[in-house]
């Protein structure tokens, strides 16, 4: 088994971006206008997955507000979540389904240190076996909490739209189509995602300028 490449510093991102620019003129053009993609690393573990679940189907501002209330109440600790009643968790802004998802995650007994040593596909398989964690959430965790250089969240709508704009596609690619397109970006698909997100923000900002 080949050991997964881990993105640890801005230098790792720069290395991946240079490789992608050399391999693909469209990505080179994107890099020229966006500048170096951000590192976007964060600590892994229970709290990171709580944040990912909280962020599902809500705005960034709402997710931050709810996440802040959960952390202030100590719900970034699985034992605290298991000891809480539903009203306490709902009081932080969680829906009933998300309360169930957080409780399931808290009771799953995940060995996060061991998870970090698994191949990308196994990380995704372990996490998606839990209620409330789909492939997008698992791949985002692999990208930013574990730093996997080749993890790629092909179901992300912003990535799909960025690919449509950058490659001049007639329609936004679906998850399967984007995953196929991204095969050419191995072993740096997570850096390609960072670059595409940066390009998306830039182009959408330009659209908003009258």
Main CATH class of the largest domain: Mainly Alpha
Strand content: under 5%
Shape: globular
Structural class: mainly alpha
Describe this structure in words.
The chain has 210 residues and is mainly α. It has two domains: 10-40 and 151-207, Endonuclease Iii, domain 2; 46-145, Hypothetical protein, domain 2 (Endonuclease III, domain 1, Orthogonal Bundle), CATH 1.10.340.30. It contains 13 helices and no strands. The mean pLDDT is 93.
Report a brief summary of the structure.
This protein is mainly α and 210 residues long. 62% of the residues lie in helices and 0% in strands. The protein has two domains: 10-40 and 151-207, Endonuclease Iii, domain 2 (Orthogonal Bundle), CATH 1.10.1670; 46-145, Hypothetical protein, domain 2 (Endonuclease III, domain 1, Orthogonal Bundle).
Task: Note the main attributes of this structure.
210 residues, mainly alpha, 13 helices, globular
Reconstruct the topology from this structure.
Blueprint lengths: L9 H14 L1 H10 L11 H9 L5 H13 L5 H6 L2 H5 L5 H11 L5 H4 L4 H9 L6 H11 L11 H11 L7 H8 L6 H19 L3
Helix pairs in contact: 1-2, 2-13, 3-7, 3-10, 9-10, 11-13
